[in-house]
Amino acid sequence: MTIIAARIDGRLIHGQVANLWTAKLNISRIMVVDDDIVDSNLEKTALKLATPAGVKLSILTVEKAANNILAGKYDSQRLMIVARKPDRFLGLLERGVVISELNVGNMSQSPETRAVTRSINVVSDDIAAFDAIHAKGTKLIAQMVPGDTPADFLSLLDKVR
């Protein structure tokens, strides 16, 4: 299995992902999956600057990410997939990518969101996507940093349904 970690994080690549997770899991490639970012030179440049030295970066649409993973393009690498929202991961699963565990790390607050934890905020569409991800057999956990004990995300989500 080439996918070492899958994480939802609204900040994408930042201190926790760039320094803590990549080092702890010995990640060789970070894949950012987002159909909008691929068209934003500013965001792509920022992500490149945030990527740790020695770690490769891919910024791909859901479709391209799924095709590359299924074609075995990253089989020799230790891959971490990062996306802002659960629908990106649902898109990967619907295209046949196997993700055994998804870490819900950070989802920003907005006027429309409901707080699941201090750092995880969801809207109804997110809850539906998480339910669909779980139905496909992916375990959902909440774990901010590697030293934290993973929590069952669905039981946390039940509090805001």
TrEMBL record:
Kinase as UniProt keyword: yes
Record-linked Pfam families: PTSIIB_sorb
Gene Ontology BP terms: phosphoenolpyruvate-dependent sugar phosphotransferase system
CDD domains registered for this protein in UniProt: PTS_IIB_man (cd00001)
GO cellular component: cytoplasm
Domain PTS EIIB type-4: 1-161
Membrane-crossing residue ranges in chain numbering: none
An example molecular function term from Gene Ontology annotations: protein-N(PI)-phosphohistidine-sugar phosphotransferase activity
Subcellular location: Cytoplasm
Keywords: Cytoplasm, Kinase, Phosphotransferase system, Sugar transport, Transferase, Transport
SUPFAM superfamilies per record: PTS IIb component
Name assigned to this protein: PTS mannose transporter subunit IIAB
Lineage, top ranks: Bacteria, Bacillati, Bacillota, Bacilli, Lactobacillales
